């Protein structure tokens, strides 16, 4: 690795460290809004319906809260409105339109209006056909990253928002705001559930 790449990666790490509190505050601000009062800040009404339907399909309510319960759709709209530049916002709009056009061609309607079985079929097809994110070390992808489709970007953002929400962090994942002593050599079976902090 040359010095220029090392500096670039260090800058990216520092930037993500600075941006993380801002993103978490956006997520917390979603908690304050009631669903009936939600007016999208960036998305059109149809695009917001698409996002809500998408996140509800991949993270439905079961014995645990679903994506809509922790307002992942509102968070995604805020991310697009507050952190995306104009070019990235235009990309999102075009990709949502493209996704819905593919649904119309294959199943006769936009994603939000499809049956649960057809929605699952759409997502399985997208999962099989799109490149995945390479594994990363400290925020840097290992190996050459193939272009990642909007489907995969949206899914990743939805999962991040869901698992970063207060409800999931405190009530589903293991949570200890003040960790105790460090125990490095204990069996995985003693650790139990995945920890949120």
Key descriptive features of the protein:
two-stranded antiparallel sheet, 197 residues, 8 helices, mainly alpha, globular
Structure description:
This protein is an all-alpha fold and 197 residues long. Mean pLDDT is 81; it is low at 32-36. It has a two-stranded antiparallel ribbon. Helices cover 59% and strands 2% of the residues. The relative contact order is 0.11. The chain has helices at 3-32, 45-58, 72-83, 86-107, 116-129, 150-164, 166-171, 188-191, and strands at residues 136-137, 140-141. It is globular, with a radius of gyration of 19 Å.
Number of DSSP strand runs: 2
Report, as a whole number of angstroms, the end-to-end distance.
32 Å
How are the strands ordered across the major sheet? 1-2
Helix content: 55-70%
Number of helices: 8
Write down the Rg.
19 Å
Structural classification: mainly alpha
Roughly what fraction of the amino acids lie in strands?
A: under 5%
The biggest beta sheet reads: 2 strands, antiparallel
Helix and strand run = HHHHHEEHHH
Average pLDDT, to the nearest integer?
81
Give the uncertain stretches in residue-range form: 32-36
Shape label: globular
